[in-house]
């Protein structure tokens, strides 16, 4: 049997997983709902490993997880999985499965996927922005993941997208102003003020059909994201900005954000000679966590 890598992407609602070779080819993949309790999640991860290990010689397991994670696979925070706060996920999983296990932040794994075999494979310096229920990201500088002094680089969702409120500054953050949930769903519900709850995709479709409130909501989202990405570009001077997450498959979003970023640059009199990167959609959408987690295991 040839050796394989198991890649596992732990999300707040689903766990995606797959069996890969060392070129990044996925031979088999699946998805399950994320259990509520930490112990149940660990049991599910072991079951995934055992299922693949019966038919393959599994060399290692790579895990993509939410939260702030140090370079030893220790979860300082665990996103929406509160049982994983202050938890040594790597050590616990190695004890349970008996092979090498490597754990990395989910946005960092998405970055690795695009660098390894994706749209950024020729780039040495690029930024990945994840826009979904919230906003996150990751940074690569000179072909290396930039972690920061406390392993929390790329937390772009904490950036302020408007003047912070004295009582709750969080409400002014990018995650709470320019994400799919807050920037589209919640914003439309507030402006419509009729009690109707619709999805982000439905708001987008209504904007295309001429709904004035939906059009305003979508334009506000494009502007917010463009402003934040503009700030990232002038801060890091990347070769490429890759958009990942739920909205990355929307071609109009990519087009509108590129247009607004370029408009901001072109109307700034000091920016004439500055080269800006293209903003592109990620190549690997739902599979990026699996691929990036596997790569993190392979490169060790």
Automatic annotation (TrEMBL):
Pfam families: ROK. Belongs to the ROK (NagC/XylR) family. InterPro entries: ATPase_NBD (IPR043129), ROK (IPR000600). PANTHER family: ROK (REPRESSOR, ORF, KINASE) FAMILY, SUGAR KINASE. This is Sugar kinase. It comes from Erysipelothrix larvae.
């Amino acid at each position: 049997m040839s050796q394989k890598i198991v890649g596992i992407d732990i999300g707040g609602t689903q766990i995606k997983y797959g069996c890969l070779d060392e070129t990044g080819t996925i031979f088999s993949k699946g998805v399950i709902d994320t259990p509520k309790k930490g112990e149940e999640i660990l049991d599910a991860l072991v079951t995934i490993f055992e299922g693949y290990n019966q038919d393959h010689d599994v060399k290692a397991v790579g895990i993509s997880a939410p939260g702030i994670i140090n370079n030893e696979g220790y979860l300082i925070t665990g996103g929406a999985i509160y049982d994983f706060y202050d938890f040594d996920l790597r050590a616990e999983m190695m004890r349970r499965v008996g092979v090498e296990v490597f754990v990395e932040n989910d946005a960092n794994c998405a970055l690795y996927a695009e660098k390894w075999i994706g749209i950024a494979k020729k780039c040495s310096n690029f930024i990945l922005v994840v826009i979904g229920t919230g906003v996150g990201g990751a940074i690569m500088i000179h072909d290396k993941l930039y972690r920061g002094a406390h392993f929390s680089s790329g937390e772009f969702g904490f950036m302020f997208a408007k003047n912070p409120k004295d009582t709750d500054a969080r409400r002014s953050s990018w995650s709470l102003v320019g994400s799919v949930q807050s920037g589209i769903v919640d914003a439309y519900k507030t402006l419509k003020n009729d009690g109707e709850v619709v999805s982000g995709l439905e708001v987008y479709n209504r904007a295309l059909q001429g709904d004035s409130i939906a059009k305003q909501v979508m334009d506000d989202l494009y502007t917010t994201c463009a402003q934040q990405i503009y700030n990232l570009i002038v801060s890091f001077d990347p070769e490429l900005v890759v958009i990942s997450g739920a909205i990355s498959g929307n071609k109009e979003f990519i087009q509108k954000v590129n247009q607004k970023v370029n408009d901001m640059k072109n109307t700034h009199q000091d920016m004439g000679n500055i080269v800006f990167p293209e903003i592109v959609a990620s190549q690997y959408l739902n599979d990026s966590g699996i691929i990036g987690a596997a790569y993190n295991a392979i490169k060790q």
